[in-house]
């Protein structure tokens, strides 16, 4: 009997269904070794050697796997192919005391892929293991060294993370930009024309032959002056241009773009998306879902061509195999993009007791995106016209040019299965020098707007563009910064920093700039990539980071005074008479005695500061205020709690 070990029972069941009786598939239920939670677990004096332990919850599993591996003629480690999966395989080998175990990897859980992997086993990739080990040690050093500093200088139970702190900085700095933003006024002038019963709009684009830029008409006075100049003129088509325009399909999904599209189209949070994708992968429906590569296998390209031609017709196939190149920093090009393992397996095949509606929706999204990537381009008939005002038979001294555009879908191509936003605007048949009937002039006032707050989709996109984190880390980053109470979502489900998040971010930016520096963090990711390729050693890289970090931390313990981040109130403690101050806890501000810990008096500020300006709909006496759960999630409740237990996740309406 040959023993195959995977991470999860679901993955194990799928593998077992492909393998014969000579194989037994067992699960490790994730990681079997880790750093201890009770202490640092890194020997700084001896090249940052990690001190791994087998957690209590894993001991029973390890014992059972060790027993099975001793009975097996060979043990095969089949954890995922990324760095974390390689690390799991290495830890299993250590915990089970395996001597040169076989390691197999595959990008999809299908019979052919598993059989091919078994024919080509390899040894554990020590470089990938070292890269993952370096990441774990780095994060442990930052978290376990910097968090106590935050406890002492801000509030108990706070924590700092190497990558998460950068994400908080992005959100906090965007918020500052929004608050400082000053709107700038500008105007546009549109002309509404009519021909053959079709009304269409043209925008004033040029004055005296020069393009009018965004702020070319800065105020109402200038807009009205131009409008006055244009009234009473005849309008003539100066030029017409018609052409066919192509719109090419998007590439198949990577982890980042899957999370972005799942949020935009399905409103799935990143963590939920990855959970559903994990189940689809383990059940053999999609390829591995933690990837930043856009590669597609030759088999998948041939399967796509066959399916598209048969299902939609030859004219819907691109006519060639579309290949894409990723722009992501440090992409693992040996991997493959996320795609269905078999295009012929329609989304409707997921309907049934085993899968929920979310599985169907996410699989359909992956299926559509992959097939669309190999389909023909969408074709549009595009028309552009320049329209000028005339007085009498000659152009007036100050001349203007209006520009009208229109496009009509001619052939849907890939849009047949993967919808993208586009605007159809039909222009009537226009000819050069023909006169047009002006319906009205429309001077319109506009104001510039600040950059919007980050959504889950745009935050993931920003992290990827800056080279922060990797496919397996985007969802945990977003979850962690919310769980820690540093950011929250507004009513439009966009991220904003909490007051605590702003304080912690400002403190880190001022005193630990490298920890939250975007370029520095991206450079660390690049170094981890180099370690995974075998181009760097991991211990010198950790040492290079840690020495200046530790020296700065020691200095800041002396320099940073906690009094600088509390607020005086002018009130006295009702218990001991000492001054009351506003302190910050994990869930926001509260009143506390300045003699803490000698005096432990505290007082909530919730009822005073969090009212939304309406009476409780249940008791009609208390005010509706914002509250937080133990995990920091905001909800609405009555200020008379516990006498009144009204609570709602949605903001009540008057």
The count of DSSP E runs of length 2 or more, i.e. the number of strands, is 23
CATH architecture level-2 label of the largest domain: Orthogonal Bundle
Amino- and carboxy-terminal Cα gap: 69 Å
CATH class of the largest domain: Mainly Alpha
The helix fraction, in percent, is: 25-40%
Biggest sheet character? 6 strands, antiparallel, barrel
On the 0 to 100 scale, the average pLDDT is: 90
Provide the domain count. Answer: 6
Shape type: globular
By CATH's scheme, which homologous superfamily of the largest domain applies? Answer: Topoisomerase I, domain 2
Q: Class by helix and strand content? A: alpha+beta
Q: Radius of gyration, Cα only, in angstroms?
A: 31 Å
User: What low-confidence regions span 5 or more consecutive residues with pLDDT below 50?
Assistant: none
Strand content: 15-25%
> Order of strands side by side in the largest beta sheet?
7-8-12-11-10-13
CATH topology (level 3) name of the largest domain: Topoisomerase I, domain 2
Total helices: the number is: 17
What does this structure look like?
There is one protein chain. The protein has 654 residues and is α+β, with helices and mostly antiparallel strands. It folds into 6 domains: 2-124, Rossmann fold (3-Layer(aba) Sandwich), CATH 3.40.50.140; 142-180 and 454-559, Topoisomerase I, domain 2 (Orthogonal Bundle), CATH 1.10.460; 185-248 and 378-447, Topoisomerase I, domain 3, CATH 2.70.20.10; 255-373, Orthogonal Bundle (Topoisomerase I, domain 4); 566-604, no CATH class; 607-654, no CATH class. 36% of the residues lie in helices and 22% in strands. It has 17 helices and 23 strands. It has helices spanning 9-18, 56-71, 83-95, 111-119, 126-153, 164-180, 220-230, 255-266, 270-282, 298-312, 357-373, 456-466, 474-483, 499-511, 518-532, 538-559, 606-609, and strands at 2-6, 23-27, 42-43, 49-50, 74-77, 102-103, 185-195, 198-207, 210-211, 234-247, 378-390, 400-411, 435-447, 487-489, 495-497, 567-572, 579-585, 588-593, 602-604, 611-615, 623-628, 634-638, 647-648. It has a 6-stranded antiparallel barrel. It has a 4-stranded parallel beta sheet with strand order 2-1-5-6, with helices on both faces. β16 and β17 (579-585) form a beta hairpin. α3 (83-95) crosses α5 and α5 (126-153) packs parallel to α16. The longest helix has 28 residues, at 126-153. The radius of gyration is 31 Å and the shape is globular. It starts with a strand and ends in a 6-residue tail after the last strand. 36% of the residues are buried. It catalyses: ATP-independent breakage of single-stranded DNA, followed by passage and rejoining. One of its GO terms (cellular component) is chromosome. This is DNA topoisomerase 1. GO terms for molecular function: DNA binding; DNA topoisomerase type I (single strand cut, ATP-independent) activity; zinc ion binding. Its EC number is 5.6.2.1.
């Amino acid at each position: 009997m040959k023993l195959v070990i995977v991470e999860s029972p679901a993955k194990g069941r799928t593998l077992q269904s492909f393998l014969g009786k000579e194989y037994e598939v067992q699960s490790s239920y994730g990681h079997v070794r880790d750093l201890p939670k009770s202490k640092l677990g890194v020997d700084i004096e001896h090249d940052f050697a990690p001190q791994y332990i087998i957690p209590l919850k894993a001991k029973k599993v390890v014992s059972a796997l060790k027993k099975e591996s001793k009975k097996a003629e060979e043990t095969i480690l089949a954890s995922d192919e990324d760095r974390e999966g390689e690390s799991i395989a290495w830890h299993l080998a250590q915990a089970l005391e395996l001597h040169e175990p076989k390691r197999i990897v595959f990008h999809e859980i299908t019979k052919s892929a598993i059989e091919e992997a078994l024919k080509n086993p390899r040894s554990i990739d020590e470089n990938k293991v070292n890269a993952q080990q370096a990441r774990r040690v780095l994060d442990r050093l930052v978290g376990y060294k910097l968090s106590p500093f935050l406890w002492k200088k801000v509030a108990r139970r706070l924590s700092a993370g190497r990558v998460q702190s950068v994400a908080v900085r992005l959100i906090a700095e965007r918020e500052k930009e929004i608050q400082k933003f000053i709107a700038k006024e500008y105007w546009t002038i549109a002309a509404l024309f009519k021909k053959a019963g079709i009304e269409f709009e043209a925008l004033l684009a040029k004055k005296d032959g020069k393009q009018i830029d965004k702020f070319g008409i800065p105020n109402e006075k200038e807009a009205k002056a131009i409008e006055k100049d244009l009234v009473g003129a005849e309008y003539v088509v100066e030029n017409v241009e018609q052409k066919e325009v192509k719109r090419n399909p998007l590439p198949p999904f990577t982890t980042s773009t899957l999370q972005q599209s799942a949020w935009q189209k399905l409103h799935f949070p990143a963590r939920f998306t990855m959970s559903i994708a994990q189940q689809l992968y383990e059940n053999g429906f999609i390829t591995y879902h933690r990837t930043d590569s856009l590669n597609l296998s030759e088999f998948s390209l041939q399967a796509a061509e066959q399916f598209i031609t048969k299902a939609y017709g030859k004219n819907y196939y691109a006519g060639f195999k579309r290949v894409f190149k990723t722009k992501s920093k440090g992409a693992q090009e040996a991997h493959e993009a996320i795609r269905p393992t078999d295009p012929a397996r329609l989304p409707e095949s997921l309907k049934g007791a085993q899968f929920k509606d979310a599985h169907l929706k996410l699989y359909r999204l992956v299926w559509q995106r992959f097939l669309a990537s190999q389909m023909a381009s969408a074709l549009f008939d595009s028309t552009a016209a320049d329209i000028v005002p005339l007085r009498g038979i000659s152009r007036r001294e100050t001349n203007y040019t209006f520009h009208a555009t229109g496009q009509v879908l001619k052939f849907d191509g890939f849009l047949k299965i993967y919808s993208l936003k586009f605007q159809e605007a039909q222009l009537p048949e226009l000819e050069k020098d023909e006169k047009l009937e002006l319906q009205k002039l429309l001077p319109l006032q506009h104001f510039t707007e600040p950059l919007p707050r980050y959504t889950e989709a745009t935050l993931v996109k920003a992290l990827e563009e800056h080279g922060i984190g990797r496919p397996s880390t985007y969802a945990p980053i977003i979850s962690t910064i919310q769980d820690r109470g540093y950011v929250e979502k507004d009513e439009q489900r966009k991220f904003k920093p909490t007051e605590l998040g702003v304080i912690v971010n400002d403190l880190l930016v001022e005193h630990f700039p490298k920890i939250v520096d975007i370029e520095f963090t991206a450079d660390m990711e690049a170094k981890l990539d180099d370690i995974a390729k075998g181009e760097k050693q991991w211990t010198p890289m950790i040492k290079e980071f840690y020495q200046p970090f530790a020296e700065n931390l020691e200095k800041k313990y002396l320099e940073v005074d906690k009094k600088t981040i509390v607020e005086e109130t002018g009130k006295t403690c009702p218990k001991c008479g000492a001054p009351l101050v506003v302190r910050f806890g994990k869930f926001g501000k509260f009143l506390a005695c300045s003699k803490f810990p000698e005096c432990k008096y505290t007082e909530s500020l919730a009822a005073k500061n969090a009212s939304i300006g309406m009476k409780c709909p249940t008791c009609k006496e208390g005010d509706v205020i914002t509250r937080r759960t133990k995990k920091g999630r905001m909800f609405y409740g009555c200020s008379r709690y516990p006498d009144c237990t009204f609570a709602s996740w949605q903001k009540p309406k008057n």
